[in-house]
Specification:
heterodimer, A: 296 residues, mainly alpha, two-stranded antiparallel ribbon, B: 235 residues, amino-acid transport (chain A), cell membrane (chain A), membrane (chain A), L-leucine transmembrane transporter activity (chain A)
Chain lengths: 296, 235
């Protein structure tokens, strides 16, 4: 029982974080069919915003709010700096500009702050533990689970019930047709980047909450995780991204529990082997995107 | 209402539309006929703002709207039904209709009322309101696309090949619908390969060949003077 609870909480908290990361990446991909490689840096921005506000004496929630807003602003900036000027030109150009923007942000952090880890203010609750059915659990894992449930529900509501959400789903299947119904392209794209930044900001806080410090390269792992989760889940489906995130967390956690100490450092090799197997079985990912076919 | 002057559309070096001029008065149904590749759809998509004009002008109510982007054309009152019959397949019928009223989304009561009206007009769609649009038959999808276009309360409706690939009985229904829309005072530009059908509802018609207007006149004149089969064989 204790073991089951422990395992479940580990999978759900890691999976919740992964799912949110993947969702932030796939919402932009769905509409533009372009991967935003500067996505990890949005998490970095949230982290450094927290570091810079540390010692300011503001309540933690206020700092967290500002950090998320900074990530949203950085997300929108990605659109204006890296995507909008070259969007209509070529896919390769956007690939390079998004890498460039990512490198630019990372180097700015290296240059103006420090290459060394910097502490991030965290509330006491992040380091406390509780005992659930005999399983000693860090409270931050429970916070991650709750945050993931709330955000996924909010996201689902936004996409299903609001006109903006419906327009974004439509734009993800057929951008030109959506525009021919009067849906403004720029608004949809900027909204996608803003939502992406919001998710990255929240995930950033939870992610950094596990480590306690921020470094310029902090965004690399979340980007990789988000990318793999979306590939497993199906690049064209938001549900797929969420499922992919939880599945990846399940694989990682299972390996954490089962691999011996010497093998544990090769965990990623095992994870990626499994990912390759999944892709051999379902090359399009687990969930097929919205049916693209019209009937004639 | 709609006035196109000397319009040119290019795909790279290929000139698909070469100096086309046409107009549609308020409440008029104008048909554009012609063989495959005559430039009919390119003309229509250029009016809709989906293609940039390489030359010439498009005027709506005297306002210059040449090369406006598609969303601006919708706000100006031009709704488009492309020949690719683009429903959003994973959105429900209701959601598709809601999206059609995007430009007037703040008018919630009006949108709801229009949606009810469209569902009353197309009972088939009402039965399938909660179904993803991708599960509809071709004819139902065509009805949905037209209903969706009407949700923006357009002044001008651009219809591209509404009969394409549909069974004759469905084609009859679609044309019955077009007639109803016309009677409501809507200005319609209809691109069709099914010339006989199109002429049966049209007031006036233009015949396009190789990117140019080859003939124009009232529906009766075009129907009588033109050897319809020649249209398709390229003449």
């Amino acid at each position: 029982m204790t073991f089951t609870v422990q395992f479940l909480i580990d999978v759900l908290s890691l999976g919740g974080a992964y799912a949110l990361m993947a969702l932030g990446l796939v919402i932009v991909y769905g509409i533009l069919k372009l991967v935003n490689f500067a996505y990890g840096e949005l998490i970095m921005v949230a982290g450094y915003a927290m570091f810079l506000m540390g010692g300011s004496g503001l309540p933690w929630l206020v700092m967290a709010g500002v950090a998320v807003i900074m990530a949203v602003i950085a997300g929108i900036a990605t659109d204006y700096v890296a995507f909008r000027p070259v969007r209509a030109k070529s896919v390769t150009a956007v690939l390079i500009t998004s890498f460039a923007f990512s490198t630019l942000l990372q180097n700015a952090a290296l240059l103006f702050i420090s290459p060394r880890p910097r502490p991030v203010p965290l509330p006491d609750i992040f380091s406390q533990t509780v005992t659930i059915f005999g399983a000693i659990t860090p409270v931050r894992n429970l916070i991650t689970i709750v945050a993931a449930i709330v955000l996924l529900a909010l996201f689902a509501w936004l996409m299903r019930r609001t006109v903006l959400g419906i327009a974004m789903r439509a734009a993800a299947t057929n951008f030109t047709m959506a525009r021919m119904l009067g849906v403004p392209a720029n608004l949809i794209i900027t909204s996608a980047f803003a939502i992406s930044g919001f998710l990255a900001g929240v995930v950033g806080l939870l992610w950094i909450g596990r480590i306690g410090t921020v470094v310029p390269g902090i965004g690399l792992e979340p980007l990789l995780v988000a990318f793999i989760a979306t590939v497993i889940g199906g690049m064209r489906s938001m549900t797929g991204a969420v499922i992919g995130g939880f599945l990846l967390a399940l694989i990682d956690t299972t390996l954490n529990y089962t691999l011996s100490q010497e093998l544990l450092k090769f965990r990623d090799a095992f994870t990626f082997s499994l990912v390759i197997l999944i892709l051999l079985w379902r090359p399009d990912g687990l969930i097929k995107g919205p049916a693209s076919g019209q009937r004639t | 209402m709609l006035e196109v002057n000397d319009l040119e559309v290019r795909y790279g070096a290929i000139r698909a539309v070469r100096g086309v001029s046409l107009k549609a008065d308020t409440g008029e149904l104008v048909a554009i006929l012609g063989a495959n590749g005559a430039g009919k759809s390119s003309t229509l998509m250029c009016i809709a703002g989906a293609l940039k004009a390489a030359g010439g002008s498009i005027r709506l109510d005297g306002q210059d709207v040449t090369s406006a982007n598609p969303e601006k054309m919708v706000r100006a009152g031009v709704a488009t039904v492309p020949e690719t019959r683009d429903v959003f397949p994973d959105l429900t019928v209701t959601e598709n209709l809601t999206l059609g009223s995007y430009t007037r989304r703040s008018d919630r009561a009006g949108v709801t009322e229009d949606r009810e009206r469209m569902l009353a007009l197309f009972p088939r769609l009402a039965e399938r309101a909660a179904q993803p649009a991708g599960t509809l038959s071709g004819g139902e999808q065509q009805m949905l696309v037209i209903a969706r276009a009407m949700m923006s309360r357009p002044k001008v409706l651009l219809l591209d090949e509404p009969s394409l690939g549909l069974a004759p009985v469905i084609v009859d229904q679609i044309f019955e619908m077009i007639r109803t829309l016309k009677q409501s005072g809507l200005t319609i530009v209809l691109v069709e390969q099914n010339a006989r059908k199109a002429l049966s509802v049209a007031d006036r018609a233009y015949v396009m060949r190789l990117g140019k207007i080859a003939a124009s006149g009232t529906a009766a004149e075009i129907g009588a003077a033109t050897d319809l089969s020649a249209l398709y064989l390229g003449g």
